[in-house]
Design a protein that fits this description.
- GO terms for molecular function: sucrose-phosphate synthase activity.
- Residues 852-992 form the Sucrose phosphatase-like domain.
- This protein is α/β, with parallel strands linked by helices and 1058 residues long.
- Among the domains are: 52-72 and 87-120; 184-259 and 271-321 and 331-444, Rossmann fold; 470-691, Rossmann fold; 781-882 and 963-1056, Rossmann fold (3-Layer(aba) Sandwich).
- Strand 16, helix 30 and strand 17 (853-856) form a beta-alpha-beta unit.
- The longest helix is centred in the N-terminal third of the chain and has 50 residues, at 81-130.
- It is globular.
Length: 1058
């Protein structure tokens, strides 16, 4: 039939036969999609022979051979239906092969482009950092690291280097130091959003989101809580109240049982210990996969921020109460988290937002990385970029990981391979630049505004509480016959043993154990082929495959059904009945018993995965005295280097797998030596060891703010209940007194305080004009119960404020607040500078002093106009973290201009700049690059900034990483003690490039149509970026789009929400 290639002929006939059978059964043939999804992550992947043979043809044969096959079939055309189908089939498969080749070509070009950009950025940064100037050489501090010896450049707020920390070497805390650290009372926050997380009876393997990461974070929380000096650990995850899952996942709080530890002093009071805290976000009654969680992350961040703030206050009152001689109004200092640790990309974004809002250190663990997955998907050639993005939201995931790298002080990895081969793919990490920065920091000189997070290799720990002393003995323990024969057993045997042993004709043989989820990447089929094709191996040992839980293979989600079907077919092909066990069900509590059974039979554990990021099962097997055979790709290399308890193999080679298994099983001396080595060295992977190493790295690499840099959370006394006019002056003074305590500097002298009081008294009538004489006394800026934020970006085509439209937005906001009696405050959030905002408000007929705050320069500055029209210094210090200052000022125009642009198309605008905002005037949107492109180029050079196009694409604001309009709003809510649910934000249908980040969250968002004639959102992302629906869920009940001209609806929505 086809150019003499019998393989193609056979595959094509098989496809036609499969289609015929389906038609007989009344089932329609599935479409031959040019890019089927990966089997491991499909929504439904029951075994499909048509898809299997199509993939085999596309994968195995060149498109030229397929074209010749199609040509020959056309030449042999006749009227028979089968030949017509064959002609159509050949053409379609040939077309799929051509598309696969095009995808591979596009991928190669993209890889080459990115590599060139990364090399250029790395070389540019390395050249700047390689040589020390004469001025820098003179600024090397003395050994004591006194700040007085730092240069003026290094003493600027934007140069918050961590010189003393970097100079300290990482070392484990000694036992004596452990005793001294017990009174540190650390509060640690872990974040892991997706999957089903609970402390007991974890449903590992239930779906692709509930796997080893869930077990890891729960056990890490337990272990940290049992470590000396740690008072409380909160594991934040998503609350799921859904009939499809167990009711326990809807419980708001679950206290985890502490691990036994010599450091545990038995104190269980006062909120200490480890807790799983479940916070709702997204659909309340749905358990949704991690790919659909992205637009709901802002809501989770807001709830987490509220939770952490409340816990910090409570711990402060308990652990750090004011001195007995302190005034009655004195408040306890909050106990802020020692570190916030995000696990996986989604939690890394949450942790980055929390750490920036609270000014505390952030740590992240990738677990698996988006760029690595994207590389694998593109290499397969079965999906185009848009299809990958639509299925896996991969661009959104990668940006979340890049955001984590921007903020993280430290990245925890399991292996060195993860650093070099996976994190090296990211814009935000370059190993060469990181090493140069480390050298400069050790020398005590400026890093020129650049930053790279530190990578720390800390292997995961393991809970050894299930390991019995008999498992660590060199002897056989109980006689094998007693284990097999329940009549002779002295005690009841675990039920899982009989469930496994019933498969074997001869249960006395050693057991080869493989334990993983049924995923193609776990490479179980190659293990079965190796076992089936080796007579010696079959005669010597049995094979046990623990591949998750199942009821019916056809009902399994993901690629599990396909893998299990292939397993059963291989068992049948090699006639392995009586030699291979594949139980349908097992519990998490059965896993220790499974390892124990394999060790009792003098068996071997094998992990043949194509790539194993870490390999926790290898450590578990070693703890029960099992020698191991493991893949040479990934984490097992470092594990076996530490344990010396097994052999590494090429997972693609069945012969290598066979040889390694025979080597350990047949040579009892080598088996016993590997067993002893594993048991001797397993302490390196214990949870106590992991936690002490973890805390040592956090202490060495993380920059913990000094007391004056910590976020201040003032108490908000209850509003005065008095409404009588006789108390107006005293109430006003009490309110002003609180304002001063909240917002004024702590070192004001008496004269300044009196002047401030009189100035505020003069301003009060102007601020109260719209609220009438019935205003409730005791409410004032800083003491509101709700906020109304005007964030409508009204600009004309030339970038000047559209006064007419902005006035409509302000009038709508003010009229909606009528009758609030002073309980509601007003905030203007804009990309304009403070003077520009004040001038624009006056042009709109509004008094700036009538606003509680002005968020200006895209969130780089906060101004309290009822005090003075200057930037708040406390907020300026809060956002100064990792701000490169003038070092990045001249870099942005060079990187931000399009290829054909002139120097004047993106030039520094000195008049619109400030200490923490570099402003650039843009003449034409077509002459500048988009935000994501500029940010990428800056990350490659070690600069961490936020970028916002404003004023209808005529201005680019470059601001600190911790600064943005949404974060400024959260800062005010914490400072003023206002629940975000009592905040309403007014936006237009379009706006600045940060508008999409203003929409989601716990606050109510009201979209006013017709207010903004031209925005800047065309410069947010390129065509290959993620979509807006991956950032914000527009169907959220908190987002309301009003009909044009319906101000009454605006008033009702605002009053109903706040």
């Amino acid at each position: 039939m086809a150019v003499g290639n019998e393989w193609i002929n056979g595959y094509l006939e098989a496809i036609l036969d499969a289609g015929s059978k389906l038609r007989v059964q009344g089932v329609s043939l599935p479409p031959l999609e040019p890019a089927p999804a990966l089997a491991s992550e499909e929504s439904s992947a029951a075994y499909n022979p048509t898809r299997y043979f199509v993939e085999e043809v596309v994968r195995s044969f060149d498109d030229q051979a397929l074209h010749k096959t199609w040509t020959k079939v056309v030449a042999m055309r006749n009227s028979q239906e089968r030949n017509n189908r064959l002609e159509n089939l050949c053409w379609r498969i040939w077309n799929v092969a051509r598309q696969k080749k095009q995808v591979e070509r596009d991928y190669s070009q993209e890889v080459a482009r990115r590599k060139q950009e990364q090399e250029l950025g790395s070389l540019e940064a390395a050249e700047d950092l390689s040589e020390l100037s004469e001025g820098e050489k003179e600024t090397v501090p003395k050994p004591d690291g006194a700040a007085a010896h730092l240069s003026a450049d290094e003493q600027q707020p934007q140069q918050r280097t961590r010189l003393a920390r970097i100079n300290s070497e990482v070392r484990l805390v000694s036992d004596d130091e452990d005793e001294q650290s017990k009174d540190r009372n650390l509060y640690i926050v872990l974040v892991s959003i997706h999957g089903l997380v609970r402390g007991e009876n974890m449903e590992l393997g239930r779906d692709s989101d509930t796997g080893g990461q869930v077990k890891y974070v729960v056990e890490l929380a337990r272990a940290l809580a049992a470590t000396a000096g740690v008072h409380r650990v909160d594991l934040l995850t998503r609350q799921i109240s859904c009939p499809d899952v167990d009711w326990t996942y809807g419980e708001p709080v679950e206290m985890l049982e502490r691990l036994s530890s010599g450091d545990d002093d038995g104190d269980e009071s006062g909120g200490g210990g480890a807790y799983i805290v479940r916070l709702p976000c997204g659909p309340r009654d749905q358990y949704i996969p991690k790919e659909e969680l992205w637009p709901h992350i802002p809501e989770f961040v807001d709830r987490a921020l509220s939770h952490v703030t409340n816990v910090a206050r409570a711990l402060g009152e308990q652990l750090q109460p004011p001195p007995s001689d302190a005034p009655a109004t004195a408040l306890a200092a909050p106990v802020w988290p020692y570190v916030i640790h995000g696990h996986y990309a989604d939690a890394a974004e949450v942790a980055a937002n929390l750490a920036s809002a609270l000014n505390v250190p952030m740590v992240m663990t990738g677990h698996s990385l988006g760029r690595n997955k994207l590389e694998q998907l593109l290499k397969l050639g079965r999906m185009h970029g848009p299809e990958i993005q639509g299925t896996y939201k991969i661009a959104r995931r990668i940006e979340a990981e890049e955001t984590g790298l921007d903020t993280a002080e430290m990245v925890v990895t399991s292996t060195k391979q993860e650093i070099e081969e996976q994190w090296g793919l990211y814009d935000g990490f370059d190993l060469m630049v990181e090493r140069k920065l480390r050298v400069r920091q050790r020398r005590g000189v400026s890093s020129l505004g650049r930053y790279m997070p530190r990578m720390a290799v800390i292997p995961p720990g393991m809970d050894f509480s299930f390991v019995d002393t008999q498992d660590t003995a060199d002897g056989d323990g109980a006689d094998l016959q007693m284990l097999i024969d329940p009549v002779k057993a002295k005690k009841a045997l675990p039920p899982i043993w009989s469930e496994i042993l019933r498969f074997f004709t001869n249960p006395h043989k050693p057991m080869i154990l493989a334990l993983s989820r049924p995923d193609p990447k776990k490479n179980i089929t190659t293990l079965l082929k190796a076992y089936g094709e080796s007579r010696k191996l079959r005669e010597l040992a049995n094979l046990t495959l623990i591949l998750g839980n199942r009821d019916d293979i056809d009902d399994m989600a993901g690629g599990g059904g396909t893998v299990l079907t292939a397993v059963l077919k291989l068992i049948d092909r090699y006639d392995l009945y009586g030699q291979v066990a594949y139980p349908k069900h097992h519990k998490q509590t059965d896993v220790p018993h499974i390892y124990r059974l394999a060790a009792k039979t003098k068996g071997v554990f094998i992990n043949p995965a194509l790539v194993e990021p870490f390999g926790l099962t290898i450590i578990e097997a070693a703890a029960y005295g099992l020698p191991v055979v493991a893949t040479k790709n990934g984490g097992p290399v470092d594990i076996l280097k530490a344990l010396h308890n097994g052999l590494l193999v090429d997972p693609h080679s069945a012969e290598a797998i066979t040889g390694a298994l025979l080597s350990l099983l047949a040579d009892k001396g080598q088996w016993l030596e590997s067993r002893r080595n594993g048991l001797r060295n397993i302490h390196r992977f214990s949870w106590p060891h992991h936690c002490r190493l973890y805390l040592s790295h956090v202490a060495a690499y993380c920059d913990h703010p000094s007391p004056h840099q910590r976020l201040r959370v003032p108490g908000v006394p209850a509003a005065s209940a008095s409404m009588g006019g006789d108390d107006s002056l005293s109430d006003s003074l009490r309110g002003l007194s609180l304002q001063i305590s909240v917002d004024a500097s702590s070192d004001l002298n008496a004269g300044d305080s009196a002047a401030l009081i009189m100035d505020a008294l003069r301003r009060r009538p102007a601020a109260d004009r719209r609220e009438g004489s019935g205003r409730a006394l005791g409410f004032a800026p800083g003491r509101r119960q709700s906020l109304l934020v005007v964030a409508v970006d009204c600009y004309c085509d030339d970038g000047k404020p559209d006064v007419e439209q902005l006035k409509k937005a302000i009038d709508a906001a003010m009229s909606a607040g009528d009758g609030a009696g002073g309980r509601q405050g007003y905030v203007l959030s804009t990309g304009m500078t403070i003077p520009e905002a004040a001038e624009t408000l006056k042009a709109c007929g509004a008094d700036p002093a009538g606003f509680d705050a002005l968020i200006c320069s895209s969130g780089a500055e906060i101004c309290y106009p009822w005090k003075e029209l200057t930037a708040d210094e406390e907020y300026s210090g809060h956002v100064a973290f990792r701000w490169p200052g003038d070092h990045v000022k001249t870099v942005v125009p060079r990187l931000g201009k399009a290829e054909d642009a002139q120097a004047s198309d993106l030039a520094v605008d000195v008049s619109a700049g400030s200490v923490h905002c570099h402003a650039y005037a843009a003449t034409d949107a077509s002459k500048v690059k988009k935000v994501d492109s500029i940010r990428q180029a800056l990350r490659m050079r070690g600069f961490r900034c936020n970028l916002v196009y404003t004023r209808a694409c005529t201005r680019l604001n470059v601001i600190p990483l911790s600064a943005s309009r949404p974060r400024a709003l959260r800062y005010l809510s914490i400072q003023w003690g206002i629940d975000l649910a009592k905040v309403a934000v007014l936006v237009g249908e379009t706006g600045d490039t940060d508008r999409e980040k203003l929409l989601p969250g716990l606050h109510r968002t009201l979209i006013l149509p017709g207010m903004v004639s031209r925005g800047s959102e065309q410069l947010v992302r390129g065509e290959d970026g993620y979509a807006t629906q991956d950032v914000v869920a527009m169907d959220s009940p908190n987002i309301v789009t009003l009909a044009q001209g319906q101000e009454d609806d605006c008033r009702i929505c605002i009053q109903g929400s706040i």
